[in-house]
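Below is our example:

___
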Amino acid sequence: MNILRTTAPRTPRATRTIGERFEGKALKAEILEIARAHQGRDLELRQAVVARMKSALAEGRAEAERLLMEEGCGRCCAQRLSALQDAIIQAAFEVATTLLYPMDNPSRSERMAVAAVGGYGRGMLAPGSDTDILFVLPYKQTAWGESVAEAMLYMLWDLGLKVGHATRSVDESLRQARADVTIRTSILEARFLVGDKALFEDLERRFDKEVVEGTAAEFVAAKMAEREERLRRAGQSRYLVEPNVKDGKGGLRDLHTLFWIAKYVYRVRATGQLVAKGVFTREEARLFTRCEDFLWSVRCHLHFLTGRAEERLSFDLQRDMAERLGYTEHPGQRDVERFMKHYFLVAKDVGDLTAILSAALEERHDKPVPGLKGMVQRLSGRSRTVALKESADFIVDHDRLNVADEEAFKRDPVNLIRLFHIADKRDLALHPDAMRLAARSLALIDADLRENEEANRLFLEVLASRNAPETVLRRMNEAGVLGRFVPEFGKVVAMMQFNMYHHYTVDEHLLRCIGILSEIERKSNPENGLANDLMATVKNRALLYVALLLHDIAKGRPEDHSVAGARIARRLCPRFGLSAVETETVAWLVEQHLVMSTVAQSRDLSDRKTIENFAAVVQNLERMKLLTIITTADIRAVGPGTWNGWKAQLLRTLYYETEPVLTGGFSEVDRGKRVAVAQAQFRHALADWSDDKVAAYAARHYPPYWLRVDLDTKLIHARFVDATEAAGKPLAVHAELDPARGITTLMVLAPDHPKLLSVIAGACASAGANIVDAHISTTTDGLALDTISIRRAFERDEDERRRADKVKDAIEKALAGEVRLPEVIARKLPKGRRTFSVEPEVTVNNSWSNRHTVVEVSGLDRPGLLFELTTTLSRLNLNIASAHVATFGERAVDVFYVTDLMGAKITGAARQSAIRRALVAVFEGASDDEEAPRRAARA
């Protein structure tokens, strides 16, 4: 059972215990007594005081962590730690002012107030957070004030605390607050700790009158701009699968920004007071508290778990976090996935609260009004409302679609779908009041509405709109309407997949797919390649939108999501108004949506059997067109850098190789002509080469090379080969940086031999480089031109370039036989617990190729894996004719086309079993047994 509370937490009895032990009198009196015992010996005094403070901090933090594990109250934990810190600072102040630097007859200038600011000012402190304090002075700094502040800071630093501090007079604080919004925010949250309280109250009173009054609009604009910049750096989506708890979208900083703005604009001290101001309902105020408690729980656990101020919920921490927070497995979903789903639902709630406050600010004219596609305008004058001819239940209010009254959805529940249909049709932004009412009216979406013909017609028109379907569906999802109207979609809302391949939650991925399909239809991005050309030729475009919305809708179930998704499609499509034939097409697309990607990336496209097998699956040209478009959108929506020109070229090659098989031998662009076109493009791009030189180079490559390699890579290859041969080198390595994809590409030119790929892989592993992709080409004159992609290690190009040079050097030395790779790799491979677990699978198949046995290996990726696999295949006396290496997050999928040393397929059942055992042993850590492959070879 999840130990996190789902209601606003009460203040536990243990909180008072912490207060009694560490606040004010008890600890302060004990520390002062220790200090007095060493009075007159300043060094000993400081050492004794710091020692007691250090033990108090350790005891208090241990108790706070114990209570957090026991109660699950994150806000309580943060308040306890803040109270503990208060007691330490108050004791430090008393020691400094009464024993180290006592002042018997202070002047008016020799006064000081110490205030907590920043997050600490809110009375909430995470275990690893900085302690931000402000020393407030009446006038300019005095020798006494400087000595007291310095003594306190040295004590705090000696405790190992990270202290952010500033010393300012009241006038200086106000002057800087007027000029700097960050300082203004810190003073807004300032909280008195110790010292001259009247001085602090003077600062508060003057700050309210001289800085805050009349500047609400300016402050709101500044904080919203600050938020946008922060989200731009952290990642705009709140559904990134490794979220930043503090600074990410939907994280604690968003809640803090909400409260800063509310406090500044509405002059309130607590969230509950926003109910009286009419900004939040009571339930929304409780939601704010629940979100805050959950996020503080996650943040405090994260700091305690890592022992530092870690704010990112990275994959390697998520499993431990799920365990600490008490999540358990359910069929089809692991504990970590349930934890992260809860996290993303809370992030969505934070987004809803942001929208509610934004609407209230717009009504006050303190914030610009957003449009449907992000444009803004400033509210001015009275509210302008325009009635709509489509429905009397809706109005246009300042160019935003709103309900005519609070009964709009009750009068006609179809209006819950019609709201979004009109917004899409008229390109109108949705008024926050309409969104808020829709979210409160979800109970009206029942079985009758889901089967309503008009509601389903409107929904399908929104889904397949030529305007902005992703944007409107996203709003529908944020209001909860989409998940309620299509309950199967509701099950994947905020669902994350615990792997490194998918960057977003399932619902976010599906919505991004719709957006990319719309982009393909507009032909606005040439990177979509063949899909752009095919889209205009499909007979029923709506089927693509429905299939993309449903293709991952069965994720999180125990069975294969493609098969289960097809079953869901057969149930939903008739409801949406699709015919039986259309329904079957959508179901087929959902069931087969991974096939084209798998074949293109892990099969030899020059092998006739590959094409025949794929043609048998797609059956006709129209289905292949649809599948090509869906595959493009699906890969592109996985995350940044997943789609690239190489994958686009592979899909294009597979499509054009299969087309003649499906059309009975006729092809719009036959294979020979496509090779000729590719070579003509190549010749045109190499204008500085003579025709003879181009022709001679072109003759060195087999036809498949021209069809599966993109033009940019061909040009790099040509210049690389030319430069290598001009320098008279027998082998060479060239590196290309690709920051956008987060990889570095290595091109290796060397005499071809059976163990070449193994040596290259081993050299990369020895240099600490992780291979994520590999493509092998062999020239007609016996050279290998291999392209290896390794994961980028450094953010700055100059650093990555130096690292690439080291990897190049390692490959060249390995190919020259100057190093013994097994020993080097054994020393460098990382050890320790792995974040992910992937069950290894090895398939040995003779039906996928007419000439080769195809060995497909999948399992947990790790540095050196490709070297171990290829070395094992070599020890098994297998010749690798081609290899197709791909990495999907933490899962490696490597496919090898092999023969025995006589060039024949591996047909014996015993030999095939031995191959499987030897390759599985690589994943299970048994690959060090060099006799195992030899025994398998003999078998």
Summary: The first helix runs from residue 13 to 22. Residues 1-22, 371-382, 926-939 have pLDDT under 50 and may be disordered. Residues 2 and 17 are 25 Å apart (CA to CA).
